[in-house]
Structures are given as C-alpha cells and as structure tokens.
Amino acid sequence: MTPPLPPELPAILVVDDEVRSQEALRRTLEEDFEVHTASNAEEALAVLEREWIRIVLCDQRMPGTSGVALLRQVRERWPEAIRIIISGYTDSEDIIDGINQAGIYQYLLKPWQPEQLLLTLKSAAEMARLHAENQRLAMELRTAAPVLERQVENRRGAARRRFALDAIVRAPGSPMHGICALVKKLSALDIPVLLTGESGTGKELLARALHYDSRRADEAFVVENCGALPDQLLESELFGHKRGAFTGAFEDRIGLFKQADGGTMLLDEVGETSAAFQVKLLRVLQEGEVRPVGAARPIPVDARVIAATNRDLEAEVLAGRFREDLYYRLAAVTVSVPPLRERPMDIPLIAQALLDESQAALGRRFEPLSGEIIDCLVAWRWPGNVRELRNEVLRMIALADGDSLSASHLSPRVLRAGEAAEEPALNLLGELEGDLKTRLETLEARIVRESLIRHRWNKTRAAKELGLSRVGLRSKLTRYGLDKGD
Predict the structure, then answer these.
(1) How far is the C-alpha of 45 from the C-alpha of 81, rounded, in Å?
(2) CATH number of the domain at 11-132, out of 3.10.20.600, 3.40.50.2300, 3.40.50.920, 3.90.190.20?
(3) 354 with 393: CB under 8 angstroms?
(4) CA-based nearest residue to 32, from 111, 115, 110, 135
(5) Helices (H) and strands (E) in the chain — how many of each?
(6) What is the pTM of this model?
(7) Distance between CA atoms of 62 and 424, rounded to whole angstroms?
(8) Which residues form the Response regulatory domain (predicted)?
(9) Which CATH superfamily is domain 165-338 in?
(10) What is the CATH code of the structural domain delimited by 425-486?
C-alpha cells in the first residue's frame, strides 16, 4: 500500500484503552499535532498502515498486547516513527527491559503534566523531522553522486583539452614548438619552473599546460598576481590567517598555498614582491610549509610552484632588488617566452583563433580574416602582444557590418602597417630604399592604399580625402598597380 503524503502538522498516534485518557491527550495535543487514537495494538497497527505517523504515544498497561510489545513491532515495521511509553509504574521489569528492545525515545510517568508532555512531544517531532530530512538528503546525495562525479570528470577532461600543449596555437617554424617540447619534458618532473617574457605573451597559458600535463592534473591550479597586493594582504592571501590576527580578520582563512595542496601554485609577477616578502616566500619553498598570519605553528603544504615575471630576474639579483637564493629556488628551469613580434608566423593563426573564440562567446558568425587584414596584423610589432591582438579582433567585431570584417576597422596604428600615427614621414623615408623619386613614389603608394583600405575601397571617398579627382586617383592606381584584388 502506498503511504499517503505527510500532513502539515506532525501526526501522532495515541494508544490507550481508556477513552477518558484518549480524550484528555487529544485536547492537550490537537493544536500542535494531528492526533489519531487507538484503543489497542490491533487498532494501532491499522492506523499505522494507512496514516503517516511520526510519533507513537502508547500506554503500557492495556488488555492483550502491552505498550512495550506494541512498540517493538512498530520499531521493526516503521523504524522512523518516534516511540514514547507512558506508565504509572516505575519499577516494571517489562518497561526496563523493553526500553532498549523497542528503541523507546522517552519514558513518561503518570500523572503527566500538559506543559512537560507538549515540550517532550515537540522535541520528538523535531527529531523526527530532522531524521526524515537527513534521510532525504542522504538519498539525494546517493542519487546525485554518480552524476556529480561525471560532471567533475567532464570538467577535468575539458580543462585538459583546453589547456593541453597541443592546443597552444602555433605555426610551422614557430619558436613556440621548441618551448612546448621543453614544457612537455618539465611536466613530468615535479620541479619549480620560472616563466619569463613580456606581458601578454602567454606565460599563464604555458603554466596551465604544464599543470594539466603533469601528475597533479586532477588537483587545483591556483593563480595569484603578486604585484597586485601589498605585503600584508599578499601574505594573508597566500598563507592564510587566524581569526583576530589583524583588523578585519573575523574568521580563519585558508591560504592559496593550502588550497593548491597537491596541485600547482602559479606566482604571477613574482618580480614585483618586496625584499621582506621574499624572505617569507623562500621559507615556504625550502621547508614545504606555510605559517598563517597569527598562527602559532606552520602547516605542511605540497604544491608545485611555477613563477612568472616580465622582469629580468638575473638583472634584478645583480641590482640587489631580488634575493639570489629565492631566484635559484624558483628557477630550477627557466622558460623564456618570445614576444609576438618575434614569431610573426603565429599572428594569423592566433588572430583567427581569437575570432573563433569570440564568435562562440557572442553567438555570431563572421567570415575568415581576409589577406588584407592579415597583412596589417603581421606588419605591426604588437607591444601588448596577444592581449593587444585580442583587442584588435574585438574592435573589428564591434565595428563590423554584418558578417564581414574589414581592415578599415583596425586601429590607425595597425592599419598603417606598423608605423605609429605620430611617427614623422621623414623616419619612414629613411627606411625606404632607392633614390629620392623611388622613395617618394613608394610612400605615395602606401598612403593611397591606406586611404583605400580605410574607406573600404570606395574610390570616391578616398579621392576626396586625398584631394584628388576620380580620374587622378584611377591614374595612380594604374601607375602603382593598386587594386583590391592585389
């Protein structure tokens, strides 16, 4: 038989062979409970079969089956029901022996007091509610555990694929091939690695690839920018703190090193740390333990440390701004990441990958980058490296009309193929080859082509900007061999 839904009020079954006792208990309990009554064990079992009973309040002395005997049956068939016995006898051996056998929650003596009885039964009802809630949560956890495990494993797999060394965009002949091969070797060795290179060259991407290709891949990868916080906050962030260690420390805090226990800790911009903090960091690397701010003793941690910096740490050591012993602790192996200008063959692939990533995030589709756009991108020196390249891709997307991107949407400095907007024309002339006439013609051809690109090859607008007639512009296009197809 399918049990009914539980009532809004907790249901209690009063079992007593005396009608007056039943009625007295009903009047006392009916405001806080849904009261059911029975005069003997047979009636009580029938009620339990059809109702959702949380508490069974039973008199001990009844004709036929005693209260303790009845509650033994209740325990076997409805173990979630709270069992309470009432008796006027304090020395009954049946009661004393049956308390454990029947799992009796409370033993009440007659005559009972209404206030005491209500308090006992409300406590019993709350315990029954908590027990039912715990059972429900346990069931949900058992049901959800396999799903959660699959979700966690799927996320881990996605992270491994996303940050795999093979996922790092690079062209044939790129210096990144040698760097990725080195990182592949280092991933199998649990040693500190120092990543150096300009900001935006992909040091964090390499650090993640190193982590997800290592035996620590299933554990945490934690990043902290050491140059973003003052010493006290950085110490608390990395090492943790105890409650009351300083103003605002209202509770204990686990530091990032402890969060990375078993995994990898990336200390970004480590060259920005102060001499005082470098001493504390050195102890962590030497001893394999951290001391939370305000703690009496250190705690052990097992985190692989990868450091990254855009500074020349060797020069910083010689200048006395970085501790030599810490440098050698961090730089078991140094990996230097080249800037984007030293690997121009990667620029088209990275730009297209950034476009594909943005398309997926925005839910829009664009045509592949044109040769005209690629020429401009490759010619620029990219002082901001990949971050600057990403901004250019986003700029083109923001200014695009429809699904087509145009070189005219690039920043002026990039559109001028690597020549800064404020750079005097004389500097450009100095870099050109040939006699004066040849140099001036080359410069004129560049200016005409730039104007055409900026106006998306609208000859009328380009001629107006250059102060030429359409016939004059057409003549120069023919003279210099300029055509959109070229």
Answers:
(1) 13
(2) 3.40.50.2300
(3) yes
(4) 115
(5) 20, 14
(6) 0.61
(7) 111
(8) 11-125
(9) P-loop containing nucleotide triphosphate hydrolases (3.40.50.300)
(10) 1.10.10.60
